[in-house]
Fold this protein.
Amino acid sequence: MGPAPLDSLDMRGATLGLSAQVAAAAESARAVEGLPSADGLSAVLIIGMGGSGIGGDVAAAVAAPGCRLPVLVSKHYECPAWVGPSTLVIASSFSGNTEETLAAAGGAAARGARMVVLTSGGELTRLAGEWGAPVLPVDPTIPMPRAGIGAVAIPPLVALESMGLLEGVGAQVDAAVAQLARRAEQLSAGRNPAERLAHAIGGRIPLVYGGGQLGEVAAWRWKGQFNENPKLPSWPNRVPELTHNEIAGWAVHGDVTRQVLTMVLLRHDFEHPQVRQRFELIDELCTEVVGGVHSVGAEGEGPLAQLFDLTLFGDMVSLHLAEVLDVDPGPIPVLDDIKARLRS
């Protein structure tokens, strides 16, 4: 047996524990009291960056078909001008110290928005006290924000259900917990599908395409995990949009792109029928211009289960790629350096 993979923060253990993390996050969120009234609300805004921001994207995608209000996500310093007393704002920061989130949330609170905070501590917890905002707790023992996607994606959905804005969250959470447990068991075995895909990608740059809002969020998650775990460049896109522009860019330079790029298509059961046909055409048209076209199909009952299933699969692909490339997936020194420079 060879040496153990380099993984100083046990990102693999945290990733394979996503099922338990989702269940615990739902339980903690259900116990939170003092959520704002839903009377007169016109919109929901989730503010967050990085690992916290993608949690907002998950919540917005899952809520979209059933929530009676629009659920939007902002990843900027600025608070949108339309935010006011009729807006529910969920400020999400794993650490509680994300400067973009603090700035935008401060602007929302100043405009009288109904504030809810999602964090493990930090300055955002102190501000929640000033604002009189309830805190949805995040487990501070999770090693990195990106390893806590369940902890930041589930509480907003539970809060929306508790406020009477969304139905069926409990059943979707139960289905996701069950599917994640099944997928974790599969991906814990040797030479599992995620490991095989990682070896197929190898040193190439992965392009990740997803269909509809669920697939788009999954593609962005895969891209971020490729960036932070094995430290690879990666780019996502969404179907059908890319078939109106990007695919025209494959007309030349095929000899180059075959050497440096590979493509991953993320599929799920909630795709529009025309999106399914467009995926077939993408596969056909791109096979000759990239190093490989690989498809990953979601499993599970319901949108949340399938989105988290794709998430867990992609997270494990990224960790296997880190192993292939002999990279420690935990530390992210370049991001820490950027934050330190901005503080100084």
About this structure: Strands lie at 43-47, 71-74, 87-93, 114-119, 135-137, 205-211, 235-239, 261-267, 293-297. The mean pLDDT is 97. The first strand starts at residue 43 and ends at 47. The radius of gyration is 20 Å.
